[in-house]
Specification:
Rossmann fold; three-stranded mixed sheet; 9 helices
Length: 282
């Protein structure tokens, strides 16, 4: 009998891809905010008790960055913790829950990072809640307006110059690889760690990404850009490196997508699905 899985955040980048990858082999229900209000504890408790899920995958998040977000900065900490806690308090109603932490846990001066840190502390006291800590996940479907690797590949596809913002090195993990890791957890969670870093080991600067792109296709021009759009983990003037430890993922029987394969895929994707050039943040 297939496991019954709930995915929250069905319209988000991670949620949409997990639904696509898992649906052929599992009984998946992917919920949007309109279908299940995670801020309402009563509704969450009733839903989980009635549906009897084997696995909950919590991808929904509330953040107020970058600058074009319509979310409220003063609600980031409260809403993220309430959504998570409403699910965590129902831990007897499912076999296991996966949620996605962040390297922002180490940057607790920002509300988003603090919320992720508190979630991790709660999860450590729950036997069946697992924190898969993410850094930079990319692939078709993430936000090309400001996410650097998608932004750069989209511009190459449109024969535009690449702009390099003042950001440090990041670990780039392909979304398909994250989905494979999640599926491995679903099948083997009782023998796996509670809060590993989910990293590829492809830790690259913007300049190194551009060099890899040039090995695939000609680049019209490369222009320094002196403003970086703030994200949930990076302030406007912050250029620190952003990566974790890839040793756990390297131990898994999962073949990772090389950064070169990922770049080729993105360029072809944006040639076929051309972005609106007026919407680029930089």
């Amino acid at each position: 009998m297939n496991k019954k899985i709930l995915i929250t955040g069905a319209r988000g980048f991670v949620g949409k891809n997990l639904e696509k990858i898992l649906s052929p082999n599992y009984d998946v229900i992917a919920c949007t905010r309109q279908q299940l209000d995670l801020l309402d504890r009563g509704k969450v408790a009733t839903f989980l008790k009635d549906k009897k899920f084997d696995v909950v995958i919590h991808t929904a998040t509330y953040d107020a960055a970058p600058e074009f977000s319509i979310n409220k900065p003063d609600k980031v900490l409260e809403y993220n913790l309430r959504m998570f806690d409403n699910l965590a308090q129902c831990d007897r109603d499912y076999d296991m829950m996966i949620y996605f932490g962040s390297g922002a846990e180490w940057k607790r001066e920002k509300p988003y990072g603090l919320s992720k840190y508190v979630m991790d502390q709660i999860a450590q006291n729950k036997d069946n809640i697992y924190n898969l800590r993410l850094y930079s996940v990319y692939g078709p479907g993430t936000d090309w307006r400001y996410r650097f690797i998608n932004n750069a590949c989209a511009k190459v596809a449109l024969e535009m110059p690449i702009k390099i913002p003042p950001i440090g090195k990041c670990d780039y993990l392909h979304i398909d690889d994250l989905c494979r890791v999640v599926e491995y957890y679903i099948r083997n969670f009782k023998t796996l760690p509670k809060n590993p870093d989910i990293c590829s080991g492809d830790v690259l600067s913007p300049e190194e990404i551009v060099r890899r792109i040039k090995e695939v296709t000609p680049v019209k021009d490369v222009i320094p850009h002196h403003v970086v759009s703030p994200t949930v983990s990076r302030s406007q003037s912050c250029g620190e490196n952003y990566f974790g430890n890839p040793s756990f993922v390297n131990y898994l029987p999962v073949t990772l997508t090389s950064i070169d394969e990922g770049i080729k895929e993105l360029i072809n994707f944006y040639k076929a699905n051309q972005p609106d050039i007026e919407q680029f943040v930089y």
